[in-house]
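Lab notebook, bench 4. Still working through the backlog of constructs that have no structural model yet. Next entry is a single chain of 457 residues. Request: give me the structure tokens for it.
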Amino acid sequence: MSAALDLGLRAQAAAVAAGDVEAAELLDGALARIEERNPALNAVIETFPERSREMLAAAPAGPLHGVPIVIKDEWPLPWRAQRFGAAELMAPTAPGESAPYRALRDAGAVVVGVGNMHELGAGSTGNTSFYGPARNPWDTERCPGGSSSGPAASVAGGLVAGAVGADGLGSVRFPAAYCGLTGLKPTFGRSAMEGHHMAAVTTLIVSGPLCADAADCRLLGSVLFGEELAAGDAAGLRIGIVRDTVAEDVTPEVREACEKAIEALRKETDGEVREIALPDLDAATLAAILIINSESMGGVTPERLNHLHPELSPIARGTLKYRMLLPAAATVQSTRVRTMMRRRLVELFEEVDVIAWPTIPAPAPLLEAPLVELPSGTHTADQANVRGAALANLTGIPSISMPVGLSGERLPIALQLQAAWGRDELLLDAAEALERANERRWVESRPPLAEAETTEV
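Model written out:
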């Protein structure tokens, strides 16, 4: 059964549908692999074998029939409330049928476990959680990315072939980049969100798939979207590049790998690369941060802030209290920046089909000290990462991260593509074109932990 567990999402679904693999054995194998590998990763914080078996017994013959999936600790399940990797939540939670859960259930998938996440979703590294940090399968002393840290580490570590995350300021793309996966941040409003504690107020957060490659993301994304993300053709792709901090204040290895990938994509699609201007990216980043913090204030009161759980981290405690000090004028100004950036993107997407820049400026830093050394100096990973991710959340455009190389320390490097609203399919087409261009070298690279011998089930 270990061979079946090492298949991709599409291949697992096809093997179950063809009768080559028994779904019950695949589930048992996934549970056994979690038990074996998870102690080194801390990617999955809870399994519920009987609930998973009940889910399988009732599973319809959908596109993911019998396929085990990990879901982020940001989504309620009928038997478990979401906990956000935290000791205490700022909004009441309860078990329930969240939209991602229903989408998985109706597709015949089996939720095999809950993925760890950065505490309260408030970080890009995954190094902080009430359950202890998730760890990167490429180097377990390194950050797996956040906030969807456990889902990404679960897929990269070979526990499952697909996982559901959430992206509010890069929280699908960062862990995809750190763990060598493909991660799609959908167009805002297009993927399943009901049941999320901020679904009624957020203008940035989306659910999104984390998988080994673009075609697997297309399948899981179709389930989350409730519609088929049909494969198309990226021929003649017009690729826009920005000569700005987001593309240039990166490590030499990241810059070289991303530039090679962009050129390979251009050749594969018989496209062209155009240098474009996108001013005020720094303002857009700040605006996105201000908006997500102001939107997160629901349920926050002085009384609750004065009685926070003592096991909540000092950073989380400080961040929660900081939100109460945000002036309303700053949020209003942020919405003006959003309008300005959306207008600029409308004009830009008449000239180019996608915008390309590195997903992360440096490979995964150490868990104990998540700092990165860039040409501009030493930065916290959070400070550096958000520069390349916030625009997509602020404006609602789709974005995808895909692996394009390994550093000298054999840590993944990733390229990010962004497209106009509703062009999620084009991003998947472009990602598949890049996979063809590099002969799938990077999407088929596996960390040492995922290649370890596993007991047969």
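Notes after review: Residues 32 and 389 are 36 Å apart (CA to CA). The chain has a mean pLDDT of 95. Flag for follow-up if needed.
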